[in-house]
4Fe-4S dicluster domain-containing protein
Amino acid sequence: MISRCCGRSGRRCGTPRSAVLGRPPGTPSNPPSTVWGPSREKNACRVCVVEVEGARTLAPACSRRAEPGVEVRTDTERARHSRKVVLELLASSVDLSTTPRAEEWIKEYGAEPDRFGPDAARVNEEPKVDNDLYVWDYDKCILCYKCVDVCGEQWQNTFAIAVGGRGFDARIAAEHDAALTDSACVYCGNCIEVCPTGALGFKSEFDMRAAGTWDAAGQTGTTAVCAYCGVGCNVTLHVQDNEIVKVTSPHDNPVTHGNLCIKGRFGYQHVQQR
Ligand code: SF4
Ligand code: SF4
Ligand code: FES
């Protein structure tokens, strides 16, 4: 597929964000993307590469700025081959089981998840559970740093988490690798909101998955206005068997863009006291 950017002053194709990938990944003719979302793209995984006229190398569609009249080829053999290898590297090194659409992309690109063998796993350890609200599952982390950015200057300005260690030891951690409960974390859960792989996830979901009771297909999502204060954030209540199992926030809300605080994100238990 060839598309030409309209290049309307500072706007991105169809969205307020000026990337070649202006619509959700997987929209017909769009390449896949793990990091596409409400916060700034990280250009970390290269699963979204496209050919851009005049560029020697493939460009990441999630973060490459769209320019007037530039020809972008999204479905060439070179781009598809590169995506296939990236998917193989990702699937060999991290657990993609909770990455939305990863399985579909692996099929679509004919990628072999086992190509680089069992030794390619970057991390092999039990999920870290040090608080009642959310869980770090390092096996699933692609080190995209989105959680670090939204905890920091992009959204929350709390700077509770960063990348600790180097090379194979690199991991997302609170300062001095402290337990989250001993860190500056304010439990807004915005890091969970943007995590593309489920490496940072809700404890409620983690427990239900472990118990075999998580049923995403049987859940409904109802968007309402948070009643805690006058800001009026939108909350989406995910309900299974008449119980709220997690709360997210719509990314396209023009005011909150997916942000919530601890009350909106986690303070729903009182609703279920019947
Ligand atoms: S919950 Fe909020 S404050 Fe805590 S690590 Fe995540 S983004 Fe930072
Ligand atoms: S925990 Fe999630 S958001 Fe943070 S670096 Fe890992 S994959 Fe990215
Ligand atoms: S989705 Fe663009 S680099 Fe990962």
About this structure: Residues 150-151, 156, 158, 160-161, 185-191 surround iron/sulfur cluster (ligand 1) (CB under 6 Å).
